[in-house]
Model the fold of this input.
Amino acid sequence: MERVVLVRYGEIGLKRANRAAFVAQLARNLRAALPGVRVENRFDHLVLRDAHAPWVLERLQRTFGVVSASPALEVAPQLDAMEAAAQVLVAEVAPRPGTTFKVETHRRDKTFPLTSPEVDRELGRRLQAHFPQLVARMKDPEVHLRVDIRDRAYVYTQVHPGPRGLPVGTGGRAVALLSGGIDSPVAIWTVAKRGVQVTPLHFHAPPFTSERSKEKVVRLVEVLSEWCGPMDLWVVPFAHVQRAIRERVAEPLWTVTLRRIMMRVAERVAQRVGAPALVTGESLGQVASQTLEAMAAIGAATRLLVLRPLVGMDKLEITRLAQRIGTYEVSVLPYEDCCTLFVPRRPRTRPTLQEVEEAEASLDVPGLVEEALAGVEVISPAAPAPAGA
Ligand code: ATP
Ligand code: MG
Done:
């Protein structure tokens, strides 16, 4: 009898050819996230061995592609062995007189001599003989004993839901513009959930912004790594761009001009890491720079695909998600990001591309982009330490 963890995966509509790649990537991601644990690929599920650490389930609940996980006892596919495993699990819940229970069997191995209902009945009968205090109940039993019969049999009582989605790495790569705010970390999480490997890019503006504001972004990347795996954070200095814009561009167009230069720098970073897409945390109508016209003008600065996964979400939905992901409490730390010091008093909410391009003509855009890239710093935040380790 061996204690294992069963991991179920799968996404409705996943095509056959993609399936093998999906499972292989999920297994790789789990090996990286669960040091010391053996990951076995078995037909339609994964079996984890040596997975006794308390943080294993926590990690599984943050690994995209996992539908659910169950700590289970693996035994030979024979009634006596299943009975012994079931006894162990029932004893663990210390049943009192009247504790309700149910056995539910799935027989994937159709060569097994008994049908599923027959196994339910026989195991139920044997368990009650051993634990006379048990009472059978089909609806909402306190102890729901599940038995999966395959080439081995798995007996378990718990099913922990995973985050679903696609394993990170199956969906290509994107560069994400990560501020210290609430939205962009959620945007990263959202595309990572669809299998995209994200390279976060942050613009910081010393001396207008402090070292602490950069540390805050590093911390955000650390929290996101618990979901997305390790990520390198690219940090680019941007104070010179802000200075040039303040000097030469009419105040209402500051934000859109700044964002367009960010997109150009991001495009160059994307070329370096081989990414065909950019990601931002923009959400329609949230602030002056997030109208359709402003987004169109910003998007026109790059030929790359720009993903705005939060575009249709309101602030409350985004905030709730940030809380669930764990980035919210970091995002609300007070350290200013470069743009809060750079907010025009009366921003132009519906800029035309033509007026933005005219405003930009007074700037040496290629020079500003090169200067930003020359100051690139790539930070590899520490891999998340297992909780409780
Ligand atoms: P967030 O909460 O992500 O900061 P926001 O609602 O504050 O978003 P803006 O400040 O208008 O919106 O920024 C829009 C998007 O531009 C951000 O979601 C982010 O993708 C990008 N961005 C803004 N500032 C920076 C920065 N300093 N570094 C990198 N990206 C940034
Ligand atoms: Mg912001």
User: Anything to note?
Assistant: The first helix runs from residue 16 to 33. The pocket of magnesium ion (ligand 2) is lined by residues 179, 181, 337, 339 (CB under 6 Å). The CA atoms of residues 83 and 126 lie 7 Å apart. The first strand starts at residue 2 and ends at 9.
